[in-house]
Amino acid sequence: MAFDGITIAAMVCELKKNLMGGRINKIAQPENDELLITGKGPEGSKRLLLSASASLPLIYFTSKNKVSPLTAPNFCMLLRKHIGSARIIDIRQPGMERVVEFELEHLNELGDVCRKVLVMELMGKHSNIIFCDDKKMILDSIKHVSCNVSSVREVLPGRPYFIPQTQEKLNPFTVTEDDFLEKVCRKPASISKAIYTTLTGLSPVMAEEICFRASISGSDAAQSLDEAACRTLYCVFSQLMEQIRKEDFTPTIVYRGDEPVEYGVLPFRQYGNQYRFETFETVSEMLETYYASRDTINRIRQKSADLRKIVQTALERNRKKLSLQQKQMKDTQKKDKYKIYGELINAYGYGLEEGCKSFQALNYYTNEEITIPLDPTLTPQENSKKYFERYGKLKRTEEALTEQLADTQSEITHLESISNALNIALEESDLAQIKDELTEYGYIKKHFTGKKGAKMQAKSKPFHYVSSDGYDIFVGKNNYQNDELTFKLATGNDWWFHAKKMPGSHVVVKTKDGTLPDRTFEEAGSLAAYYSSGRTAPKVEIDYLQKKNVKKPAGAKPGFVVYYTNYSLMASPDISALSLADEKR
């Protein structure tokens, strides 16, 4: 989600609570576009991160320190000179702009009281940190923007500071109902887009939330809404604005399983039961948790990119091979026709004239008369032999293709299971096991280092959940773990779950006597659905049975099992009611 005006409003509220009236103690610039300011306020010392990164601009309190360069950059030195011990007298957000202004009071070289303004702009690639005097003249900025870069505004020392008004948006706090109906509901766009392109500080997600609360589809054309729907929309919008005025914020992260998908400072209602919500005391905690989780997931995805490419290339090659083999198998269906042609030529061809191109004969298998093509340059016996040779060749092809099709389909199933394991992986040790499997089956070449201890690293472990009724549930992250769970950890009376006819994890529920509450069956089914390739579907069919009925064929690939007697249930891939056990995953 974008760091929108509503999130900034909540952050300003938190900044006032912790820094208003306090003093700045330390200023550091660990990155070219980042400041780390330590201040002491009513709640004690706090470390504030201000990042003007083009890809991820942020402002929040953090407990983590960063290493700064030995020689501070010029911008940092200027700030230390002027506001190194300044008192924070005001923190504000102009309208609902993505801007935070710190008004600071300090003593100059003569001991006179002076005021300065530090402006944090969180505007995507245009983000900046700008230092101004009390008349809003720019003293310096963390990024210099000349007229060659921007025709709208120069950000250079000596230039006046102003917020660029390029889109002529309305202030949500001051917009009237008439303006809302005219500017938003009459815009030639979808109603969701009309909201966030007309009103300052509202993100597309919040626009969708307003539409959802008003029971309106965000994709509906704004001009198609009747007056009652428009007034309902304005009423919902006004309620949200009133909630912001009262500073009634609830920092929340929305998760799909373990993956954070959205965050906001107002409660979300647009997300269904397949999502879970985690609330926080402060906006800073929410932001730090969200971006730490996203960073972990992105880092693992980057590290797994090479493995994904190998798996995807192998899948495409095998699917193409399967398609060709199926086409060849279809051609072998003609073999019986050639066999019948040969038999009928032997039976009725004794009276054929030389050079005959075809003849009609009664097919004694179907009692139908058929026309048999002949090669006029060959005798009837030679034509018969030619058809029998075709029959024999197609029969041998069919026998070979039957085995090849099974091998190719098995390889595709194996690769799809590895692809699903890559989607599940959360740690580098998970990727190491997947890489070992790809190496074992020849998708990656083995490299011998000659060092016996080269592979010493933390071992990946299966997910360990605890059901609502207190039962231990284990979920394999990859094929090796699936085999270990099913054939080493699980005992005969334990229950085994797997998504039907699709790649997925083995799920094992430990039980002493083989009995489980219905709720635990449903929760284990949800885990099997979530950790499968069907996790985005509303419902997934799950097979479940006791482990003693699950068998592994001799020579089968990791994770492959067979079973013949099982129960089935339809499960939603919603695991919000479950929690991981307190152990290292």
Low-confidence segments, ≥5 residues, pLDDT <50?
451-456
| β-strand amount | 15-25%
Rg over CA atoms? 35 Å
Cross-sheet strand order for the largest sheet = 20-19-17-18-16-15-21
In which range does the helix fraction lie?
25-40%
Query: What is the overall shape?
Result: elongated
Instruction: Quote the average pLDDT.
Output: 89
Largest sheet: 7 strands, antiparallel
The secondary structure category is alpha+beta
How many helices? Answer: 13
Query: What oligomeric assembly is this protein in?
Result: single chain
Through-space gap between termini? 28 Å
The count of DSSP E runs of length 2 or more, i.e. the number of strands, is 21
Describe this protein's structure.
The structure is a single chain. By secondary structure, this protein is an alpha+beta fold. It has helices spanning 5-19, 74-83, 177-184, 191-198, 204-213, 227-245, 283-303, 305-331, 335-348, 380-424, 428-440, 479-489, 518-530, and strands spanning 23-31, 34-41, 44-51, 58-61, 87-92, 99-107, 113-121, 128-133, 138-141, 252-256, 259-264, 276-279, 358-363, 368-373, 463-466, 472-475, 495-499, 507-509, 540-546, 567-571, 579-580. The strands form five sheets. Strands 20-19-17-18-16-15-21 form a seven-stranded antiparallel sheet. The chain has a five-stranded antiparallel sheet with strand order 5-6-7-8-9, with helices on one face. Strands 1-2-3-4 form a four-stranded antiparallel sheet. Strand 2 and strand 3 (44-51) form a beta hairpin. Helix 4 crosses helix 5 (204-213), helix 8 (305-331) packs antiparallel against helix 10 and helix 9 runs antiparallel to helix 10. The protein is elongated and about 125 Å long.
